[in-house]
Amino acid sequence: MSEVGTMTATAMNAGTRTDHDVAGERLFNDLIAQDSRIEPRDWMPADYRRSLTRQISQHAHSEIIGMQPEANWITRAPSLKRKAVLMAKVQDEAGHGLYLYSAAETLGTSRDRMTEDLIAGKARYSSIFNYPVLTWADIGAIGWLVDGAAICNQVPLCRASYGPYGRAMVRICKEESFHQRQGFEILLELANGTPAQRAMAQDAVNRWYAPSLMMFGPPDEDSPNSQKSMEWNIKRFSNDELRSRFVGMMVEQIKVLGLELPDKDVRYDEETGRWHHGPLDWNEFKEVLAGRGPCNAQRMERRREAHEEGAWVREAAAAYAQKQALKHGKAA
Amino acid sequence: MTGGSTTGDDGATAPSAGPQETRAAWPLWEVFVRSSRGLSHVHAGSLHAPDAEMAVRNARDLYTRRNEGVSLWVVPASSIITSDPDAKDRFFESPQGKDYRHATYYTKSEGVKHL
């Protein structure tokens, strides 16, 4: 018998290869082959643990950084209702970050450590949040395109082989559809508004289309981690496969909006059964990832500020808890 | 997603398993939600909080924003004792070969009413 709290000790100390590892590896391979789930206390290869920690923590950071571009628009939302909706959405993003940090923690890296890595600029987050949000229509385009791409990517992750990740994704996906629909509604309203509003909606779609396609990651041939990730049943579909699926959905939905996708090369290929899109600027993608996107510095700076300026809240909560414990200790 | 993405496809390195935090970390709490009266509490996830009261409040904010439940339990993760993962098979093997513990094992009574 042992405590949950010590669950990672055995896994972390396993430096040498023992009978324990051999038996563990056999069980792990069997579970993956049966498409079953791996749980935190199971033996797992060091690469699997590392790869998942990277993926889940990056995902968590993306949710947390993703609060910024939207939170900037709360005070400027065009109505009280839109304000309330946007606040709920930003609150959801925080929640998603927390679910994911919890899932990543079960792999043995503490949340404080992950936060430190983000603040120190050592950890990555989605490149999409480094683009500026220029108008209210951008909030619509983000909900429709960015959250839409996220859902497309995340639904298969509900079946990821690592139990805590899959369970976190189920919860997240349920909430994401609200995000996408509110974005769609904003765009629809603007598209049916004045000519200026309509132009604003089209402009937002034009700017967010390509970056949202790039959210699926580099083309399959340039995607170093994909292969392994699919063998381990973490990913179920390749980047290009998901991207093509997403384009197909957008083609239908843009018709309802009465707007246009800024891509004359979109077509359905009967032979491959895939949707094709125009070329994407992968150099831009790499630049943004490398920290040289339009808003990278600003987002990181804001995240650091929030962490430092929020220190008093953490300290106050800890002090209050201590005081309560003392009070109850005396009373008992 | 992107680099930075949920697929982790950008060649980024995993967070380092570096030195321990200087600040004492808040304890981890496991959260259980009862979705309606008459059902059992089901594990919903976990969170960090400085004490039990805050853990319940945070659990309310984080896990019941959409009417998910009517009751919450929070349990310090360190208080949960689990079976040994390495003894999984041995520990749970006793029901094997004991099919007679299931009603479906008894076929001769098939067709007999109210049994």
Defining traits:
heterodimer, A: 332 residues, mainly alpha, Ferritin, 2 domains, two-stranded antiparallel sheet, 3 strands, 2% strand, globular, disordered N terminus, B: 115 residues, alpha+beta, three-stranded antiparallel beta sheet, 2 helices, 4 strands, 14% helix, elongated
Give a quick precis of the structure.
Chain A has 332 residues and is mainly alpha-helical. Chain A has 14 helices and three strands. Chain B is built from two helices and four strands, in the order ββαββα.
Radius of gyration of chain A: 22 Å
Task: Please provide the ordered H/E string of secondary-structure elements of chain A.
Answer: EHHHHHHHHHHHEEHHH
User: Which whole number gives the mean pLDDT of chain B?
Assistant: 80
CATH fold naming of the largest domain in chain A? Ferritin
Strand content of chain B: 15-25%
Shape of chain A: globular
Question: What is the arithmetic mean of pLDDT of chain A?
Answer: 92
Based on CA atoms alone, the radius of gyration of chain B comes out at 23 Å
Strand count of chain A: 3
Q: What does the largest sheet of chain A look like?
A: 2 strands, antiparallel
Number of helices of chain A: 14
Your description of this structure?
The complex is a heterodimer of chains A (332) and B (115). Chain A is built from 14 helices and 3 strands. Chain A has 332 residues and is mainly α. Chain A has 2 domains: 1-44, no CATH class; 46-294, Ferritin (Up-down Bundle), CATH 1.20.1260.10. In chain A, strand 2 (267-269) and strand 3 form a beta hairpin. In chain A, helix 8 (163-191) runs antiparallel to helix 9. The longest helix of chain A is centred in the middle third of the chain and has 29 residues, at 163-191. Chain B is of the alpha+beta class. In chain B, strands 2-1-3 form a 3-stranded antiparallel β-sheet, with helices on one face. Chains A and B meet through strand 1, helix 3, helix 5, helix 6 and helix 7 of A and strand 2, helix 1 and strand 4 of B. Strand 1 of chain A pairs antiparallel with strand 4 of chain B.
